[in-house]
Amino acid sequence: MSLSPQQRQAKLRALVEAEGYPSVDDLLAAAVADSVCPAICTAGDCSYTCEMEPDQDRGWCEECGKNTMQSALVLAGII
Predict the structure, then answer these.
(1) At what angle do helices 5-19 and 24-32 cross, to 10 degrees?
(2) Range of the domain at 60
(3) What is the 3-state secondary structure (H, E, C) of 34-77?
(4) What's the domain count of the chain?
(5) Percent of the chain, pLDDT > 70?
(6) Which of 6, 8, 26, 78 pairs with 37 at a CA distance of 20 to 30 A?
(7) How far is the C-alpha of 37 from the C-alpha of 4, rounded, in Å?
(8) What are the tens digits of pLDDT across the range 30-68?
């Protein structure tokens, strides 16, 4: 699924809020130093979050049943 830059930012902000980080930068700093990474579903009608591999770009969403999970590092364009 291809997301616009605005959609990527919105999903990152939702992930920051769900994970309790004060900013996107804080979330990304924590994610690069860990073996798992916060991930969010990129489907328009779903915002399920969980921990996944840092390079995950098509993970399975347990909520909507699609391969639409992306890690914060992929959403931010770091990986």
Answers:
(1) 80
(2) 5-75
(3) CCCEEEEECCCCCCCEEEECCCCCCECCCCCCCCCEEEHHHHCC
(4) 1
(5) 99
(6) 6
(7) 22
(8) 999 999 999 999 998 999 999 999 999 999 999 999 999
